[in-house]
Write a structure and sequence with these properties.
About 45% of the residues lie in helices and about 10% in strands. The protein contains 13 helices and seven strands. Strand 3, helix 4 (about 95-100) and strand 4 form a beta-alpha-beta unit.
Length: about 325
């Protein structure tokens, strides 16, 4: 399970040997010998050379950042990258270690923490209804009394004072999730800023937060990072990767992947109306409440720019 201790053990590096090994030993042979994978990078000149940036990419499949990383690496003109990855991928010890060696790190969600803590408490996964009930109460979409009348015993125990007796946490279950989430996101903020400014790494972020062939709604974490760091956001439209990586196998099939690279977006142009001149704590509850309107508006700009770089089958607007 991803927790604060796990995040504290993440060590990003400027020149990750794990990515180099993957490029030489896995991706190169896969793309050129065992399959015929053509990777097109349209308007690659929009990416500043030698400067860390934030890549905003649609997320069509499990592996659509691999060909992108491979192509950037093969040009030798751009910094290495790190990637925001779902916390669930790090639950598998072998996969988690591989992801760490490849210079990625997990970004947990409140939903991830709910599911993991439920499983830890009851030794089973939540049902869809159980998860939805807990998440909706946490998000203040429904009231606690409305849930307790129809909830399972486990959900009632979690959301009642029984949680304190089971966990000795000194807080309600909902408070526990909130507190842990923001404590972990503080570490994610440190890792992200350290990547951009200290390690000189670019960051690949999927604003949708989950896989979807058609572009889905974006979450505002990428906008928070852009407005805080004032680093350029480069929109990337990924087309065709889900056909090359159609399932859970990391072995690519023959095909063509086209990455269309948009022009950089910065606080001096596309985000100038949302620029926050005073310092704020990245990914904190307070900044999310205070600047949510700016974060959401900047996210919409990012998603519109990604949409323009996609083939019709991926686009929200055609």
């Amino acid at each position: 399970m991803v927790n604060l201790k796990f995040l504290d053990n993440i060590n990003l590096v400027t020149s990750p040997w794990g990515q180099k090994f993957m490029a030489h030993a896995v991706l190169g042979p896969n793309y050129h010998l065992f399959a015929r994978v053509k990777i097109k990078m349209e308007d690659i000149e929009n990416i500043p050379k030698g400067e860390p940036v934030i890549f905003a990419m649609n997320h069509t499949d499990r592996f659509n950042y691999w060909p992108f990383q491979y192509k950037l690496w093969s040009t030798k003109d751009y910094p290495f990258t790190t990637v925001w990855v779902k916390g669930t991928y790090f639950n598998n010890k072998i996969l988690g270690q591989l992801l760490k060696l490849c210079n990625t790190f997990p970004v947990p969600s409140k939903g991830y923490l709910i599911r993991e803590q439920f499983k830890k408490t009851y030794q089973r996964t939540t049902t869809r209804d159980e998860y939805r009930m807990i998440k909706d109460v946490l998000d203040n979409k429904i009231s606690l009394p409305d849930v307790l009348n129809s909830a399972t015993r486990e959900v009632r125990d979690l959301l009642s004072e029984n949680w304190d007796r089971m966990s000795h946490a000194g807080a309600s279950f909902l408070q526990y999730i909130e507190n842990n989430y923001y404590a972990m996101m503080e570490r994610v903020a440190q890792l992200s800023l350290g990547a951009l400014f200290e390690k000189k790494l670019s960051i690949i972020i999927f604003p949708e937060g989950t896989r979807s062939v058609k572009l889905a709604e974006g979450r505002n974490g990428i906008a928070q990072l852009a407005l805080h760091s004032e680093k350029a956001v480069i929109p990337v439209g990924c087309n065709g990767s889900e056909r090359v990586y159609p399932g859970s196998s990391p072995i690519a099939k023959s095909g063509t992947i086209t990455y269309r690279i948009g022009k950089p977006m910065t606080v001096h142009d596309d985000f100038k109306d949302f620029r926050i001149k005073e310092k704020f704590n990245l990914f904190s509850k307070e900044s999310q409440q205070k600047y949510k309107q700016a974060f959401d508006a900047a996210t919409q700009v990012i998603m519109r720019n990604i949409d323009l770089l996609l083939d019709d089958r991926y686009r929200v607007t055609t």
